[in-house]
Amino acid sequence: MTTSGTRAPVPREPRQERSRLTRERLVQSTMDALAHDGWAAATVAAVAERAGVSRGAAQHHFPTREALITAVLEQVFEEMTSTASGVLASLPDDEEDRVAAAVDRAVAIYTGTEFKAALQVWAAAASDPALRQLILPMEAKFARAAHQMTVAAIDPDNRYPDSHRIAQVTLDLARGLGLADTLSDDSRRRAQVVATWTEMVTAVIQVRSR
């Protein structure tokens, strides 16, 4: 309260900050719409309603659906790439634990909201050459980061000639588990598959290290 008894005005967020938050809300809402409701649900109007933003405000940030999808793709692949790259700093020293952590991380990447959103765009890109050209470089950058992370976790000292192939199979397996997870809760079977694959990779590495 002021000395005159009137309530002090509440400071308003700077316009630039409000604009940034609105943009982030629209991008996140688009990602959620893609992951949970599919490609058809990710229109500017539908996303604006989902985000609690007026259609005019949404179109100020993203005049077209293509602009919105591009922004979402950039964030999706940036987050997936950062996740893949950042895991190396926290891997355990024990060989079996390290392999388990690498497999778990690969599966987590492909079962997260970001992958589910990207999957919807991939499906649309199959019949849209312009969208395909947009997504391919981002996917390639992510794939390199994920592969490098998995190789470094499986074979940190570069001792095993098969580590690159094992890493690729691990990622292909993780992607398949991610696809299965889009249709139903596959967590119980997925845990069994992950445990079995971790045991197999560890056994191969132990044999090769003798």
Strand and helix map with partners:
Blueprint: H1 15-37, H2 44-51, H3 55-61, H4 65-86, H5 95-111, H6 113-125, H7 129-154, H8 163-181, H9 187-208
Helix pairs in contact: 1-2, 1-4, 1-6, 2-3, 4-6, 4-7, 5-7, 5-8, 5-9, 6-7, 7-8, 8-9
Question: Summary?
Answer:
This protein is mostly helical. It is built from nine helices and no strands.
Assign a percent range to the helix content. over 70%
Q: What is the residue-averaged pLDDT?
A: 86
What is the global morphology? Answer: elongated
Largest sheet geometry: none
How many strands?
0
Structural class of the secondary structure composition? Answer: mainly alpha
Radius of gyration in whole Å, from Cα?
22 Å
Proportion of residues in β-strands: under 5%
Note the gap between the termini: 76 Å
Order of helices and strands: HHHHHHHHH
**Uncertain runs:** none
Tally of helical segments: 9
Protein name: TetR/AcrR family transcriptional regulator
Biased composition (Basic and acidic residues): 10-21
Keywords: DNA-binding
GO molecular function, one term: DNA-binding transcription factor activity
Walk me through this protein's architecture:
GO terms for molecular function: DNA-binding transcription factor activity; transcription cis-regulatory region binding. Residues 10-21 have a biased composition (Basic and acidic residues). The protein is mostly helical and 210 residues long. It contains 9 helices and no strands. The chain has helices spanning 15-37, 44-51, 55-61, 65-86, 95-111, 113-125, 129-154, 163-181, 187-208. Helix 1 (15-37) crosses helix 6. The chain is elongated and about 70 Å long.
